[in-house]
Design brief:
The protein is of the alpha/beta class. The chain is built from 13 helices and eight strands.
Length: 318
């Protein structure tokens, strides 16, 4: 399954909800008028796009309609898709060039952080890169064992200490091992205890200090893992983490199980944090690097979905 097909399938629930509502609205319109913009804005807000982003999309749409001299409501949907793709562009590339490069992964319990790290490790290994994991979420019960299981599935090395150990010490040992073994990518699992921001800030500060000292000129990404099914709660969580930690990108998991994929726009446009990866399925290769055009196309077009349905029907006939 190609990139566009994966995004298309993963966004099915969001597309049926938000894009479907736009279709119904446009079908009942004879002209592009003020009512259309107001109804569109409401649909976008209900789709977890966020008030500010919904208003901006409608403003850009007004300019687009005037510039292109659009007259038919049916032409609006393609215009929205182009606007959304443009708004989502910028910062989505990881840009990890140095050897080794470091990826810190943060996230509260239940968002899919450990699974994300395992899938990320498998993805980079499939690209021919040598990957090592650091089990620095040392306080959550079973976190180390879960990460070790994913390391085995992905076929990569892992550095771990005992439960309750100093996370910064785990990061230090992982970096040393990564350098000694000529690794390309070091992926570190870190804690995400938002309920105690002071401890989280102190812990991350120690980790950043270790990396700055041991790999001062190497590329680094700090990724926050969020659960797409939580909608606006995910946006609020991202805002809270951004206030206490250095966040360079978002990983949005469980997108295929949610009708709230509009949060991607909210996070990128309102919080100014790029989405780096999205989870569009349960399989190990279903963590996809974020692609603005593929996302916008999957959000507003359902051609692939119709093809899939046709194949299922033909199979039933046989």
């Amino acid at each position: 399954m190609g990139l566009f097909e994966k995004f298309n399938k993963g966004l099915r629930k969001t597309r049926n909800s938000m894009s479907g509502a736009i279709d119904v609205m446009l079908h009942g319109k004879n002209e592009i008028d003020e009512d259309l913009y107001e109804e569109l804005e409401e649909i976008l807000i209900m789709g977890d796009v966020g008030i500010n982003t919904a208003v901006e999309i409608c403003e850009k749409l007004r300019d687009y309609v005037a510039k292109k001299n659009l007259r038919k409501p049916a032409q609006v949907k393609d215009a929205i898709r182009e606007i959304v793709a443009e708004m989502l562009q910028g910062g989505e590339d990881m840009g990890l060039i140095t050897l080794p490069s470091v990826i810190l992964v943060i996230g509260v319990n239940g968002v899919g952080k450990t699974t994300t790290i395992g899938k990320m490790a498998a993805m980079y290994k499939a690209q021919g890169k040598k990957v090592i994991l650091g089990a620095a979420d040392t306080f959550r019960a079973a976190a180390i064992e879960q990460l070790e299981e994913w390391a085995n599935r992905a076929g990569v090395d892992i550095i771990k200490h005992k439960e309750g150990a100093d996370p910064a010490a785990v990061i230090f040992d992982t970096i040393q091992a990564g350098k000694a073994r000529d690794c390309d990518i070091i992926i570190c699992d870190t804690a995400g205890r938002l309920h105690n921001k002071k401890n989280l800030m102190d812990e991350l500060a120690k980790i950043y200090k270790v990396i700055d000292r041991e790999l001062p000129y190497n590329d680094r990404e700090s990724l926050l893992v969020l659960d797409a099914t939580t909608g606006q709660n995910a946006v609020n969580q991202a805002r809270e983490f951004k206030n206490v930690a250095e966040i360079t990108g978002i990983v949005l998991t469980k997108l295929d199980g949610s009708a709230k994929g509009g949060v991607v726009l909210n996070i990128k446009n309102d919080l100014k944090v790029p989405v780096k990866f999205v989870g569009v399925g349960e399989q190990i290769d279903d963590l996809q690097p974020f692609n603005p055009e593929a996302f916008a196309k999957g959000l507003f077009e359902n051609e692939v979905e119709r093809d899939d349905d046709e194949e299922e029907e033909s199979g039933d006939e046989e």
